[in-house]
Amino acid sequence: MMNGNHSRGGDGRKTRGSSRRTFLAAVGSAAAVTTAGCLGGGGGGGSNEPIRYLSDRGDSKDVMDEIIAEFEEETDHTVEMIYTAKGTSSDAEMQKMVAAGNPPDLLFDTSTDAYRLQRDGVLAPVTGAVQDNDLPDPVSVGGESYFAAAMVEPLMGWYRNDVYSEMPASWSEWVEAAGEVSANESMEGYVIQSGQTNNADTQMTQYLWQNDVEIYGGPSDGIEVRLDNDDNRQAAVETFEWVQSMAEHSPNGSGWAWGDAIGALQQENAAAIASVGGLPILTIQANRPDLVENLSPMPFPVPSGAAQDRWWAYMEGHLVRNDGQNTEGAQAFVDFFTSSSRFFDFVLSAPLFQFPPTREQLDAPEVAENEVIQQHPDVMNLVRDNWDAFTSVLATGDDGAPNIVAADAYSEQLFGQAADQLLVGGLTPDETVDWLAEELRGLQ
Amino acid sequence: MATSTGRSLVSHDTQKRLQRIAVYLTALLISVFTIIPVYVMVVIAIQSPATTFAGGRVNLLPTQPSLRNFLVLLGSTDTVRYFVNSLVVTLGSTVLSTTIAVAAGYGLTRFDFTGKSLAARAVLFSYMFSPIVLAIPLYVVFSTLGLLNSHFALTLALTAISAPFCIWLMWQYFQTVPIALEESAWVRGASRWRTVRDVVLPVARPGYISAAIFAFAVAWNDFTMARVVMSRDEMYTITVGASLFLDRVSIGWGETMAVSLLISIPPFLIALFLQRYLLQGFSVGGLE
Amino acid sequence: MSTALKSRLAAAGSALRERDVDGTTLLLAACFVPMLAFFVVVWVIPIVYALGMSLFASPVRNPEFVGLGNYAELLGNGAFWGFLWNSVVYAVATTGLSLVIGLGLALVINQRIRGGDALRTLMIFPYLLPTLVVIFMWKFILDPNIGILNQFLVDAGLIDKPIAFFSTLEFAMPAVVVTSVWKFASFAFFILLARLQAIDPDLYERARVEGATTWQAFRDITFPHLRGAILIILLVRGIWMFNKFDIIYLSTRGGPLQQTTTLPIRVYQLAFSEVNFGMATALAGVMFFLLAGVAVVYFRAFAPEKEVA
User: Fold this and answer.
1) Sequence-distant (≥ 6) Cβ neighbours of residue C194 within 8 angstroms
2) How far apart are CA B1 and CA B16, in angstroms?
3) I need a surface site. Which of A43, A263, A344, C48 has the fewest CB within 10 A?
4) At residue B128, does pLDDT exceed 90?
5) Which of A212-216, A401-405, B85-89, C17-21 has the lowest mean pLDDT?
6) C-alpha angle A93-A96-A98 in degrees, rounded to nearest 5
7) Which InterPro entries match (chain B) (predicted)?
């Protein structure tokens, strides 16, 4: 419920033309007259409104400041940065600006959110930037592209190579090996996360994918939930059973955020975790440099005989709102950014965590020359080998068609909540499948 | 006076001793409860994360102090700018709030008018008000006037929270300032304004210092108003700016505690050097 | 305030007005215009405006008058009563615990123990520390993996697995309460200490001579002197805690599963996450009227305005 109402609120916003801010204006104008004299000074100067750019990439601030400086030099636009905390709060910040009748022009966000906003009719196309640079095109509607990818962030597991003499691969190997670690070492064998958090949600979705559960099906305009139908129910139940048995060899990870699992690995409370890309190694490098050589990246555990054919990857990039003060300027900036020579500096400001958006760019010299990446060749190998399996949760309709139900389910973190129902709430795996399917249908 | 009192004396002594032990034990427990978090903050701020987390335990006995965390703050965050913003709005609202309070306090005690108790109730009512409930309409009003993201708007918003208590404090304070002083100045032919400047303000000094301290503390402490009024990075105050630090990959607990330590410096100085003014404020009610 | 002083002041006030030779009117204006202007700009206009907004659906972008519809929807929704309950639990728990700790410490320091002055200075600190800093400290201490509390509890064998205090259903509220009490216990402490030190020592001396026990002295001398202050603390601190936003927002954002969502958190969510200013201002309105109700009780019971007017 907490983050869930954008989608429903969004329907009302489709009728853009009619939204005159009459009530606000009536009260506001009277007061405005009195203060306008002394405060209106800044408005008259430039020919253009500044491009208001909302981003949660505080890590890349320095690089972005440089790119903006170049852009402002070459054009007569100015850019105004607004940083927010990572995750849902950036969405909240945007909603806040929209509510004040002052929407941002440019956003850095996920492809999933881009699709939700496109459906609400508030995005302007960035087709040129996408086509000229051969970017992936996840939000393509009526021949126009609404999302210019800037980076890919795949999930990735990390395990202690000194605790596990050999990396367990299959589900059954993992249950056995993690059980041994929990029994014999002073740490738990694995971390199962649950609750209304992004990490629990992504991981639970990935576990279902590992057992080839087709959660959804159908085209974009007719997405149906198939989690509990004849073909999938058994596989979904098996998945929850496996999660349940792994949870016995895990700390109580209910409500844990990304950082909590990394903390467990760092403080040697657990011998393996799932996270995003090299995030754990970047954190642990700073806090426990002695531990770095004992950590290796790994794919998700997989049932014996099954293939690793879908691998959760966030795709993040730029989208332009069509109701801001400087839509054209924002589009120009996306063009400029995407073909900028500093593009790689931006992506590589958090190496091993953010990867370039195309397979070709992955082999670019800028990537190969990056020092941190050179130190962890195993991460790059894992990314290269599985590149084709990388899937955005958005692209889970038939043949990868955009899936709005999945996008909404992610924003409410229903899969993470399902794991909580199972592990904390005491539902059986069977009941958990029913609970989840019902919640998902509620979104349709 | 012999045996019976003797017996009761023993038990009285024991009782006294037990009571003494209980007193010191309570003091000790509460001190430990108060000190531990501050101690943890300081230690983590002044040693590098690698030292803090070495060996998989949190090491809280500082063996290798280092400025590393502060250097990272200076090098890769806008901490300095956030501090400047905080100082601007804090000083602005402290001056505004104190000025309003001194004027109002003087007027309310020196002029007679009907509806005084209504005024007192209004001040007390706003003093109990919820900042977030005020923040929502202020946000909408400021946004209508195009005042979001300005020091001016945040200064007003912060003054809105601190002024009621400051007024209340000065109101009470001026009652303790005898009017005789002013009367004798008038008798000697001093004008109304001169009397205020040369007699009233000097005498009221302890009062308005304590009002200023409370106004300062409210503004420096504020997160709610700044979160709502400021959305642009370069306008963030230190509390809002620092609240976003932990979301970054490149910033960890070391830098977070370092910035916390920096934020704590003004309160620390107040506690050390201005506590009697603060205690005076508490005798009138204290603040949210 | 004594009646003598009061009439003296009133007399002086009229003396001021009569001697309007050198700018008393101007002085009058200088005293009251800033305060009145200020109150109108930052209190009256916003509040009236917000109450107006609460009568509209989608008041900012697409206003549609719905009368008391928002209020009806709000109060008719079961979730509201849950949030109200959370607010009450939080307010009662934090105020109660702060009072117990503050009273305990005030009594201790009033015994003039060694180090008492240092301890008093120490207690100022939590109260003045910005909420954000307090949250950082306690998030670190209570963290499931790097937190020293979990480290201690596991070492001591009291728990098997670390607990994520701020994000576990049963511990989130207690964790927020402990964090809040740490910051706000000093409030009760300082007010009560001031009252204790104002008690005439002769009273205790006389009681001692008459053979009263410590408990009797507390019951018959100390407590009656503190009763008013305690009631004020319960009331005013209780209201403030009921209205507290930042400490909860920064520690749990109202989670997990809205376990710590109080009314102020809900107002913020409605306004800025769900962008429903109609409902947000309606809820703010409800809080406004709740406060007004409590204020009436407060004014009736204590007549605090008597202190000045």
Assistant:
1) B279, B282, B283
2) 20
3) A43
4) no
5) C17-21
6) 110
7) BP-dep_ABC_trans_perm (IPR050901), MetI-like (IPR000515), MetI-like_sf (IPR035906)
Cα distance between residue A16 and residue A14, in whole Å = 5
- What domain range includes position C170? 77-307
Alpha carbon distance A140, C190 (integer Å): 64
Helix or strand (DSSP H, E) at A194: strand A193-194
Residues 6+ positions from B252 with CB-CB distance below 8 Å: A283, A286, A287, B49, B246
Whole-structure pTM value: 0.83
Q: Which domains are assigned to chain A?
A: 47-152+313-384 (3.40.190.10), 155-311+387-443 (3.40.190.10)
Residue with tokens 């850095």: A108
Domain boundaries, chain B: 3-56, 79-250+268-282
CATH number of the domain encompassing residue C299: 1.10.3720.10
Tens digit of each residue's pLDDT (9 = 90 or more) over A53-72: 999 887 788 899 899 999 99
Neighbours of chain B (3+ CB pairs under 8 A): A, C
Antiparallel, parallel or unpaired: β A106-110 and A51-55: parallel
Burial of A377 from C-beta contacts in 10 A (0-12 / 13-18 / 19+): exposed
26-65 in A: which are within 8 Å (CB) of C? Answer: 27, 31
Helix (H) / strand (E) element for A106: namely strand A106-110
- CATH code for B79-250+268-282? 1.10.3720.10
Collect all residues of chain C within an 8 Å Cβ-Cβ radius of residue B185: none
pLDDT in tens, C249-298: 999 888 777 889 999 999 998 888 777 889 999 999 999 999 999 989 88
| H-helix segments, A221-370 | 230-247, 258-266, 279-287, 327-338, 343-347, 359-362, 365-369
Residues of B in contact with C104 (CB under 8 A): 26, 30
In this structure, of A295-304, A329-338, B112-121, the range with the lowest mean pLDDT score is B112-121
- Asked if A260's CB is within 8 angstroms of C168's CB, the reply is no
CB contact under 8 A, A58 and B247: yes
**What residues of C are in the A interface, CB distance below 8 Å?**
45, 49, 52-53, 56, 58-63, 79, 143-146, 161-164, 166-169, 253-258, 261, 269, 271-277
Compute the average pLDDT of residues A9-23.
33
Q: Does the structure show a pLDDT above 70 at A338?
A: yes
| B139 band by pLDDT with thresholds 50, 70 and 90 | confident
Q: For residue C18, what pLDDT is reported?
A: 53
Residue of C22, C148, C250 lying closest to B243 (CB–CB): C250
Q: Are C245 and C264 in contact (CB under 8 A)?
A: yes
A263 touches C: beta carbon within 8 Å: yes
Residues of A in contact with C257 (CB under 8 A): 196
Q: Do B234 and A81 touch (CB under 8 A)?
A: yes
Predicted pLDDT of residue B9: 55
> Would you say residue C282 lies in a domain?
yes
Q: Give percent above pLDDT 70 in chain C.
A: 92
CA dihedral A166, A169, A175, A181 (to 10 degrees): 20
Q: What domain count does chain C have?
A: 1
**What confidence score (pLDDT) does residue A19 get?**
34
